[in-house]
Design goal:
This protein has about 90 residues and is mainly α. It has one domain: Winged helix-like DNA-binding domain superfamily/Winged helix DNA-binding domain (Arc Repressor Mutant, subunit A), CATH 1.10.10.
């Protein structure tokens, strides 16, 4: 399963940056990120919720993570974007 490795931001500015980045994402990206990171669902579980294949859910999650990383890097939260790493577990 692919997970997002990052520490939760504690600085109020960083928290706002993450919230703004999430708000700037398309709804489908927010949905898959929140299912993965907030609800702690696996790709298989996300696929069931979204009614798609596990492969499609994994690709959507990978792309959403890449997009939020770019947003964080370009909107003043570069310290956060460098902490965002995808790893296999």
């Amino acid at each position: 399963m692919r997970r997002l490795a990052t520490s939760a931001p504690s600085d109020p500015v960083e928290i706002v940056a993450v919230r703004l980045a999430l708000a700037r994402l398309p709804r489908s990206d927010r949905e898959v990120l929140l299912l993965s990171e907030w609800e702690d669902l696996s790709a298989k579980e996300i696929a069931q919720v979204l009614g798609c294949s596990v492969s499609a859910a994994s690709v959507r999650l990978h792309r959403a993570r890449r997009r939020i990383k770019v947003l964080l890097a370009t909107h003043g939260a570069s310290s956060l974007s460098t902490e965002v790493e995808v790893y296999d577990s």
